[in-house]
Amino acid sequence: MGVCAKVEADRPVKLIFDTDIGNDIDDAMALAMIHTLADRGEVELLAVTVCKDNPWAAVYVDLINHFYGRSDVPIGAVRNGKTPDDGNFVRAVAERKVGGEFVYPRTLKSGKDVSDATTVLRRTLAAQPDGSVVIVSVGFMTNLARLLDTPADSISPLTGRELVKAKVREYVMMAGAFGSSPAPEYNVYIDPPSARQVWEQWPTPIVATGYEIGERILYPAESIEKDFAYVANHPIAEAYRAFSEMPYDRPTWDLTAVLYAVRPDRGYFGLSPHGRLSLDDSNTTHFSPDEKGAHRYLTVTTAQITRIREAFVWMVSAPPVGKCKR
Q1: β-strands 97-98, 218-219: how paired?
Q2: What is the mean pLDDT of the chain?
Q3: Among 83, 82, 109, which Cα is nearest to 94's?
Q4: Which of 10, 53, 77, 288 could crosslink 81 through cysteines, CB 3.0-4.6 Å?
């Protein structure tokens, strides 16, 4: 069922999570993973920024943060962004009430009530030591491209690009496709200009996990049905059931980005040579090997897949500290 006791890591990864939560269920599972790893002392969740332009997305993030005991984590939301639809689960889970009360406590009433994502990103980065932050993005790159364009302001005398160069150690993204038959990938083709800008201008190392990685590692429906019963209502299990008709196993695209970002040296994945990412006119991702390039992408073997899947099931379903079944 998971470990309830808190385990301290030597140095937690200072992590910013940028997500299009609400478009697919893997974003929600990835955020649950982050909280589990934070309970173990492996992560310090600095902020969550939402790149899906729907007011319920930030509310759902907020109620997850409350469920896992981190209601104080700053949340930012995109303005005039992409995919404004409700999707299948963020609004449904957030609105559910029993006896006139919300099933899942939260502070936010709407994503319109939080600061713009670029403001939250600037404020969060400015407060951290140089070279200390890992950014994980699992949606389109709207917020990160806009961050690069921000001017110096009252938060920091540095421009966005200067702030990233000073504060970010690594940027891990779920984006692109690097298999034998590359094709346009969702997180890229929803906002191609932002992807191009980030790949051309981002001043720190980038590691991409492509479509072909998460597609091969399926989260089992059996876990949803059996491993979340330590509480009567669970915002991850309920969202999973709402997203599609059960039972179904779902690819773990976004979870792979979190796992690598937090545990890069544990042998879960392989890495490509250094190179450069680019986007062609059909919005297909290309990787050009270049020993001076700052970009790499993840690879995975059949043996690694088995180990990764086991890690995902535990990390997504582990009870938060204080919610262990007695």
Answers
A1: unpaired
A2: 96
A3: 109
A4: 53
SS3 97: strand
* Helix, strand, coil share (%) of the chain residues, nearest 5: 40, 20, 40
CB 51 within 8 A of CB 19: yes
Model confidence, pTM: 0.96
Mean pLDDT, to the nearest integer, of 4-16? 74
DSSP letter for each residue of 241-277: HHHSPSS--EE-HHHHHHHHHH-TTSSS-EEPPSEEE
Q: What does the buried/exposed string (b/e) look like for 223-247 if buried means 16 or more CB atoms within 10 Å of the residue's CB? A: bbeebbebeeebbbbbbbbbbeeee
Q: Is the pLDDT of residue 1 over 50?
A: no
For residue 270 the two structure tokens come to 């392989």
> How far is the C-alpha of 158 from the C-alpha of 154, rounded, in Å?
10
Write down how long the chain is. Answer: 326
Q: pLDDT band at 139, cuts 50/70/90?
A: very high
In degrees, rounded to 5, the angle at the alpha carbon of residue 253 between the alpha carbons of residues 117 and 75 is 20
Distance CA(315)–CA(308), nearest Å, equals 10
Let me know: does 166 contact 130? Beta carbons within 8 Å.
yes
pLDDT band at 4 (very low <50, low <70, confident <90, very high): low
Tokens describing residue 168: 């970010």
Q: Which residues lie closer than 8 Å to 103 by C-beta, 6 or more apart? A: 96, 97, 233
C-alpha to C-alpha distance for 36 and 68, rounded to whole angstroms: 8
**What domains are there in the chain, each with its CATH number?**
13-317 (3.90.245.10)
* pLDDT surpasses 60 at 61: yes
Query: Could you please report the per-residue DSSP string of 228-250?
Result: TTTSS--HHHHHHHHHSPSS--E
* Contact between 92 and 54 (Cβ < 8 Å): no
pLDDT tens for residues 73-114? 999 999 999 999 999 999 999 999 999 999 999 999 999 999
* SS3 state at 311: helix
